[in-house]
Specification:
The protein is of the alpha/beta class and about 400 residues long. The chain has 2 domains: about 50-250, P-loop containing nucleotide triphosphate hydrolases (Rossmann fold, 3-Layer(aba) Sandwich); about 265-375, abc- transporter (atp binding component) like domain (Coagulation Factor XIII, Chain A, domain 1), CATH 2.70.50.60. Helices cover about 25% and strands about 35% of the residues. The protein is built from 8 helices and 17 strands. It has helices at about 20-30, 65-75, 105-115, 120-135, 150-160, 180-195, 205-210, 230-245; strands spanning about 5-15, 35-50, 55-60, 80-85, 90, 165-170, 200, 215-220, 225-230, 265-270, 275, 285-295, 300-305, 310-315, 330-340, 345-355, 360-375. β6, α6 (about 180-195) and β7 (about 200) form a beta-alpha-beta unit. The N and C termini lie far apart (about 70 Å).
């Protein structure tokens, strides 16, 4: 894949003044005396995003995420370095951005379309779809200054996705919508992602990023801490939120090779061979995990099955089954296989954990990590099929 966004040694620097008086003094001083100090909103950012990737941006408030997105969209210019964006960008950065509050929703659709380079005739062909997706009823004919934040989000997102962008940027704007609309937006983003659109997605919901994105980028205090596979970076970021600066020295830029010394290992990925299955078919759960020390003694993996209301169904583990699994430094894969699944119709969830000491010490645990549905023609009732026979 070709690069669609390439950033090299990019800084964004602001001058900070103690007061407006100092700002005026610096502007008028005959010898250019400085009364300001430099604040790096972003410092030495190097990042490459390929066409068709979906990338989640992680970072605490004020970390520089929004500044980076504004530079990619061209709203801001970098202070130093090189930024190359090779594609049409549609951005949903903040509610109401690019909207005239005095115009109606319909008028703002045409305003935004013209700003994106479309003719009125081209917008005419799109407008009904935009209105249908926004689903704000008669408010489409009212000034947007009368809109709630939810209505803003609906209309802004609908306009952003309608212009067939090569790069779609969404920055927290979905958080104000209701759950039904958020689901609708994510489904639409999945659709345009499948068509090859590059998506940059900012969300405080880490699970949203895990489930939607291929890769993640973590920015903190203006520095790019790490970039790589989404689960790796999300795990690093979650550890940072828990342990704070204790783990900062353990992080290497680009690839999270080093982990906190008190973390022995972690579950890297969990995959099912099927998410829709029939009774008596084979179910495979593939578990990939990392171990960060030379060896973990008495190491085991457990897999637990639950109903959606957390009714415990079954919980085997490698210790109880007498199976030895890799327990040394590196990345390993193990498959848990049920040759003939005895579960009946319903939805089921899977928890996976890695442990030591017969399960007494939890190293990492992924609750509700995967779900699958069992569907059949009418066989029997209950949760399990139990082999049986009738005698007369």
């Amino acid at each position: 894949m070709d690069s669609i966004i390439k950033i090299e040694h990019m800084d964004k620097v602001y001058k900070m003044y103690a007061s407006n008086t100092d700002r005026l003094k610096e502007a008028l001083h005959p010898f250019k005396k400085k009364y300001s100090h430099a604040h790096y909103a972003l410092k030495d950012i190097n990042l490459e995003i390929k066409q068709g990737e979906s990338v989640g941006l992680l970072g605490t408030n004020g970390s520089g995420k929004s500044t980076l997105l504004k530079i990619i969209t061209g709203v801001l210019t970098p202070s130093n370095g090189k930024v190359v964006v090779d594609g049409k960008v549609s951005a949903l950065l903040e509610l109401g951005a690019g909207f005239n509050p005095e115009y109606t929703g319909l008028e703002n659709i045409y305003l935004n379309g013209s700003m994106m380079g479309y003719t009125r005739e081209e917008i005419d062909q799109k407008v009904n779809g935009i209105i249908d997706f926004a689903d704000i009823g008669e408010f489409i004919h009212q000034p947007v200054k009368t809109y709630s934040s939810g209505m803003f989000a609906r209309l802004a997102f609908s306009v952003a996705i309608s212009v067939e962008p090569e790069i779609l940027i969404v920055d927290e704007a979905l958080s104000v919508g209701d759950s039904k609309f958020q689901i609708k937006c994510i489904e639409k983003m999945e659709q345009i992602k499948s068509q090859g659109t590059t998506v940059l997605f900012v969300s405080h919901g880490i699970e949203q990023i895990r489930r939607f994105c291929d890769r993640a980028v973590w920015i903190e205090k203006g520095n790019l801490k790490a970039a790589g596979p989404v689960n790796d970076i999300c795990d690093l970021y979650e550890n940072y939120l828990i342990y704070g600066e204790q783990i900062e020295e353990q992080i290497e830029e680009q690839v999270p090779q080093n982990q906190p010394v008190d973390i022995l290992g972690r579950i890297k990925s969990i995959n099912l061979n099927k998410e829709k299955i029939k009774s008596f078919e084979e179910l495979r759960v593939e578990i990939e995990y990392d171990i960060y020390v030379d060896e973990i003694s008495n190491f085991l993996i457990g897999v637990a099955f639950y109903t959606p209301d957390r009714e415990y169904i079954f919980g085997p583990n490698t210790f109880l089954d007498g199976v030895e699994i890799p327990n040394t430094l590196g990345t390993h894969k193990v498959q848990y296989i049920i040759k003939k699944l005895p579960l009946l119709n319903g939805i089921y969830q899977i928890d996976v954990g890695i442990f030591s000491q017969k399960g007494l010490v939890c190293i990492d645990y992924k609750g509700e990590s995967k779900s699958f549905m069992v569907g059949n023609d009418y066989i029997s009732e209950g949760k399990f099929y139990i082999e049986h026979e009738w005698e007369i």
